[in-house]
UniProtKB/TrEMBL annotation:
Annotated HTH araC/xylS-type domain residues: 236-334
InterPro entries for the chain: Homeodomain-like_sf (IPR009057), HTH_AraC (IPR018060), HTH_AraC-typ_CS (IPR018062), PchR_regulatory_protein (IPR053142)
SUPFAM superfamilies tied to this protein: Homeodomain-like
Protein name per UniProt: Transcriptional regulator protein
Pfam annotation, one family: HTH_18
Keyword Transcription regulation in annotation: yes
GO molecular function annotations of the record: DNA-binding transcription factor activity; sequence-specific DNA binding
SMART domains for the chain: HTH_ARAC
UniProt KW Transcription keyword: yes
Keyword terms: DNA-binding, Transcription, Transcription regulation
Coiled-coil regions listed in the entry: none
Gene3D superfamilies: Homeodomain-like
């Protein structure tokens, strides 16, 4: 794991920094060729080794060149939250998901990803001069999960299975809580090295909690937020309604009518409570119930698809794999 440490106040990264042999992804090539001391990134940048097989790289930085970086990416489990900006990057054949800029709302839609890599691949990043990227990436060495207790716990078993599946990838819209933790990491205050490590580590663990809940099929982790008690009751009622209408085509418009609110109000409520849209939440809810049926009730893939309203098992399998990083057949057989 990397021993390369940068203060969160670092404002530049040079070609020589990227070439250091102790960085997490050893660079194989940089094109076009630059002088060793040429600056390639400008902004707030840090690499921190938190010990025990876990490290974090965070940045709010601008690329200073059109630069293609090819590096060696060793086996790992990584969790990232990209808040703003975009860059063309991939690990092996897998493109790294990037946030989207919402023109009508004039802001970026963050994206979170948990990614498993069981063997060494090439990491390729194509930077474009003047583009800014704001993100947090947490890297876990393969042995990190082995240190966890309760090896037979179903959620830990699901996470280990995901980690052992080469190029398994799961993306979701991070909750407001996770976005806040990422922002706090990027904006870390000036502290002594010991206190800074504790500060960052506490927030890293909060992000991992949400990522692992996604893999374990528990969906978004709900944290207390700016949602009134009355609205919490409405959300509970919506969950009950979805449970009773699993096999039916429930839409955001239908929920808004059923619960006596405008579509815009409903969307704002879900954004505040879960950090996601209503339609995405409905899809996630149904797929989680399908996974539960596959795991606990020994239903067939076709039966699970029908249970949650998919007319085509093939479409269900595609949505399921996109959601959980593995096929429903894999879950059923396991």
């Amino acid at each position: 794991m990397s021993n390369m440490q940068m203060s969160p106040t670092t404002t530049f990264v040079t070609k020589a920094d990227l070439r250091r042999p102790d960085i997490d992804r050893p660079v194989l090539s940089l094109t076009p060729d630059l002088e060793s001391e040429d600056r390639v990134l400008r902004g707030r940048i840090a690499f921190l080794d938190l010990g025990g097989g876990i490290s974090v790289h965070f940045s709010n930085a601008e690329d200073l060149h059109d630069l293609k970086t090819v590096a060696e990416s060793r086996p790992r489990l990584s969790v990232s939250i990209f808040l703003e900006g975009s860059v063309e990057a991939s690990v092996g054949p897998m493109p790294i998901p990037m946030p989207r800029y919402l023109e009508k709302k004039a802001h970026w839609q963050p994206v979170a990803t948990i990614f498993a890599q069981a063997r060494t691949e090439r990491f390729v990043r194509q930077a474009h001069k003047g583009r800014r990227l704001k993100k947090v990436t947490i890297t876990l060495e393969p042995h990190w999960l082995e240190q966890m207790g309760q090896p037979d716990a179903p959620d830990l078993r699901a996470i280990r299975d995901f980690a052992g599946c080469h190029l398994a990838c799961r993306s979701w819209t991070p909750s407001a809580h996770a976005v806040s933790l990422a922002e706090q990491i990027i904006g870390s205050p000036a502290l002594s090295p010991f206190l800074l490590r504790l500060y960052v580590q506490s927030r890293v663990l909060g992000i991992l909690e949400e990522a692992f809940a996604q893999v374990a099929g528990q969906g978004a982790v709900e944290h207390p937020g700016p949602v009134r008690a009355a609205d919490r009751l409405k959300l509970q009622g919506i969950d009950a309604y979805l449970e009773q209408h699993l096999g039916e085509p429930v839409t955001a418009d239908l929920l808004a009518r059923e619960f006596g609110m405008s579509l815009a109000t409903l969307q704002r409520l879900f954004a505040a409570a879960y950090g996601t849209s209503v339609s995405r939440y409905i899809r996630q809810f149904k797929l989680e119930r399908a996974r539960r049926a596959l795991e606990r009730d020994a239903v067939s893939v076709a039966e699970a698809a029908y249970l949650v309203g998919y007319g085509s098992p093939a479409n269900f399998s595609t949505a399921f794999k996109r959601c959980f990083g593995m096929s429903p057949r894999t879950v059923q057989e396991r």
